[in-house]
Amino acid sequence: MDCPMCKTKFRCLMIAFSIFLLTFGLVGCGSDDTTKNTPPPPPPNVNDPQNPDPVEPAPAETVKVTMYFPTSDATGLAPTERTINVAKAASEEVIAGMFKEFANPPSGLVAPLPKDTKLLDVKIKDGVATLNLSHSFRENFEGGATGEEMVLYSIVNSLTTLEDVDSVEFLLEGELKAAILGGLDTSTPVTANESLILK
């Protein structure tokens, strides 16, 4: 005759053992989950999906130039050496750098550009550097024949020191003006005036 108590104890042991196996199995499976400690992959480069590697900026180059600044009494143009930092040594970039330098005259000399003048664009073709200047170049010019010479030839004499620039054409917001500052002829490209350079 089977003992009912033995059957009950056996069932209890089987239930307890099953619970133990289930618990051990779940804990074991959880301990093998290595994804929790794995960092997420880096996000893709949204700027260039074809090339996920970041693009390093081009190293800057330095170019030494001679620039001409008017004297405070407008008696002539004084040469000064400057170093221009550019991404590449193309003359258009050098000219853009020179225009920034015009705002920083040496001690005793003056900035040639009228207030708020901006170089909108520059192109070089067949030895002619074509400058597209903002309206401020004309609107903020304070006038006078001597002042006009100082402004225009400070630019022209400086830019024609570059090997591929022989003359300078002036545009005002894209338009060619017969006399961009009112007096001197700028209907054709302007060449350097060495008589204004102080020795």
Report what the structure shows:
InterPro entries: GerMN. Keywords: Signal. Residues 95-181 form the GerMN domain. It comes from Desulfitobacterium hafniense (strain Y51). The model is unreliable at 26-32 (pLDDT under 50). With 199 residues, this protein is an alpha+beta fold. It has a domain at 61-196. It has a 4-stranded mixed β-sheet. A two-stranded antiparallel ribbon has the order 1-2. Helix content is 29%, strand content 21%. It is elongated, with a radius of gyration of 38 Å. It contains 4 helices and 6 strands.
What key attributes describe this structure?
two-stranded antiparallel ribbon, 4 helices, 29% helix, alpha+beta, 21% strand, single chain, 4-stranded mixed sheet, 199 residues, elongated
What's the short version?
Pfam families: Germane. The protein is built from 4 helices and 6 strands, in the order H-E-E-H-E-E-H-H-E-E.
Q: How would the blueprint of this fold be written?
A:
Blueprint: H1 4-31, E1 61-70, E2 77-86, H2 91-101, E3 119-125, E4 128-133, H3 136-139, H4 145-159, E5 167-172, E6 175-176
Parallel strand pairs: 4-5
Antiparallel strand pairs: 1-2, 3-4, 5-6
